[in-house]
Write a structure and sequence with these properties.
Blueprint lengths: L13 H10 L7 E2 L16 H13 L12 H12 L8 E7 H16 L4 E6 L5 H7 L3 E6 L1 E2 L4 E2 L1 H8 L7 E5 L12 H14 L2 E6 L8 H14 L3 E6 L11 E7 L3 H19 L5 H11 L1 H33 L6 H4 L4 E3 L4 H11 L1 E2 L5 E3 L8 H10 L3
Parallel strand pairs: 1-12, 3-4, 3-7, 7-8, 8-9
Antiparallel strand pairs: 2-10, 5-6, 9-10, 11-13
The protein binds pyridoxal-5'-phosphate.
């Protein structure tokens, strides 16, 4: 038979399937808390003001769309290195490559690990972003899980996490969410991050930090604090950062791998390998989104406006969290949903059973992912009461 007839059908993407179900639901009142895209109170995902201004300026000023360099534009490396790492490490130790979104950054980072340590196991939190384990496998690496989420309290089970991380081998990789854990919303405190960093230096494992939501949690600097702390403590650190959410440029596919290397000599070799991996994967990385990010971060006026808009996004999600926790306290007479106000980022795992998630959908038109992950940005102050009523009615 023909080669192409040997392929297996692929499992449906659960979140995209949910989006289609929602779209086809004829009920006039329904609520989509599924896909991980920020939406304002009007349900829109607008182009950020500073990004639009940069785009207009770029349209006027850009004189060529010839190729950039294999690792992307050095100006983009610099602004992103500063945004993510600040002064945490000596800049001569940092190698960087622009990538196709945060997903591309993860993939290139893991390709780099495969070259350096083909037998490495990559440890991921239980649970983690559903794309992590398949990408690790695609890069030819083994994966394993460390305990992370305590389903009972909807918080991090830190002692279990530390117990599991203590067993990681020196040549292994530990994948950490730098902030705003997806899908749970539960995060480590800074003192806990310090303990993790200390353990990583003791075991000799390589940290790989996925930073997809900087600015969505406690603030731009605050959300980078864990990444900086780990990078400062460990001899080497890989970071896969995404600009999709905090610049609202999802479809432009803008991300970066930052590799903090042991010394300036290693930096050159790692930089060469990152460029080579980009070359093998797609030759040159996309430039449009990276250039917009660079323009916004380099212009004091655009940067200030971007930060203000990002801060509005962040505080609106925080307000929705508090409102929902308050409404649930009023309806259930208990504090068991207080975790919603403690969680950070766009998601919280509600902790509902699959049949309760189904009831929310069938009886109340409320769509969340099967593991009961809710996109907080799918709410608005006007829809929070209906969600609280439905959660209480379903006995969650
Ligand atoms: N990592 C996490 C945890 C995410 O949630 C996402 C996006 O949903 C990404 C990485 C990748 O984002 P993108 O490839 O769209 O930049």
């Amino acid at each position: 038979s023909r080669i192409l007839s040997h392929l297996h059908p692929q499992p449906e993407d659960q979140i995209l399937k949910l989006t289609a179900l929602f779209r086809d639901d004829p009920r006039p009142v329904k609520l989509d808390l599924g896909v991980g895209v920020y939406r304002n109170a009007a349900g829109q995902t607008p182009v950020m003001r500073a990004v639009k201004a940069a785009e207009k300026q770029l349209w006027q000023d850009e004189t060529s769309k010839s190729y950039t360099s294999l690792a992307g534009d050095p100006g983009f490396h610099k602004v992103m290195r500063d945004l993510v790492l600040g002064d945490a490490v000596d800049h001569t130790r940092v190698a960087a490559a622009a990538t196709v979104g945060g997903t591309g950054a993860l993939s290139i980072a893991l390709d780099l690990v495969k070259r350096a340590a083909p037998g490495a196991t990559v440890w991921v939190s239980d649970p983690t972003w559903p794309n992590h384990v398949p990408i690790i496998g695609k890069c030819g690496l083994a994966s394993n899980v460390y305990r992370y989420f305590d389903a009972e309290n909807r918080a991090v089970n830190f002692s279990a996490m530390m117990e599991d991380l203590a067993r990681v081998a020196p040549g292994d990789v530990v994948l950490l969410h730098g902030c705003c854990h997806n899908p749970t919303g539960a995060n480590l405190t800074l003192p806990e991050w310090q303990e993790v960093a200390r353990l990583l230096t003791q075991t000799g494992a390589l940290p790989l930090i996925d930073l997809a939501y900087q600015g969505f949690g406690d603030g731009l600097e605050e959300d980078a604090a864990a990444t900086r702390l780990v990078a400062a403590a460990c001899p080497d650190t890989l970071i896969a950062a995404s600009c999709s959410k905090n610049f609202g440029i999802y479809r432009e596919r803008t991300g970066i791998v930052l590799a903090v290397t042991p010394d300036a000599a290693a930096q050159g070799v790692v930089q060469g390998n990152l460029a080579a991996l980009n070359r093998l994967t797609y030759s040159f990385p996309p430039d449009h989104g990276a250039r917009l990010v660079t323009m916004v971060l380099e212009s004091p006026a655009l940067r200030a406006d971007w930060q203000a808009e990002l801060e509005d996004i962040r505080t609106s999600m925080l307000g929705l969290r508090r409102q929902l926790a308050d409404e649930l306290r009023a309806r259930t007479g208990s504090d068991r949903f207080g975790f919603l106000a403690q969680h950070r980022g766009m998601f919280s795992r509600l902790g509902a059973k699959p049949e309760q998630v189904a009831r929310l959908r069938d009886e109340h038109g409320i769509y969340m992912v099967g593991d009961s992950r809710m996109n907080i940005a799918g709410l608005s102050p006007a829809t929070v009461p209906a969600l609280a009523t439905a959660i209480a009615a379903c006995g969650i």
